[in-house]
Amino acid sequence: MIDSLEQGIAPRHFNQVQKVAPKFTFRPVHGAAILATLTAIFLISTLVLLLGALALGMALWWIPTLIATLLCGAGAVWLTANYR
Q: What are the transmembrane regions (predicted)?
């Protein structure tokens, strides 16, 4: 009797069979979003290192981060362009 009463009040809440977690599928758009975020992080760090190199006479430490920025940005654009 309690089961039928629970089913009448809130069938979705008490019926555990209907609760199925949605499956996450990794799509190219998710990769593009991750690469775009990395691009922004690397771009900020490149600018900080470039300003440090100009103001304090530091070495060319900004070049590897610039390369990482360009690679991540190109990957994000490529994944976005090829997504269907």
A: 32-55, 61-81
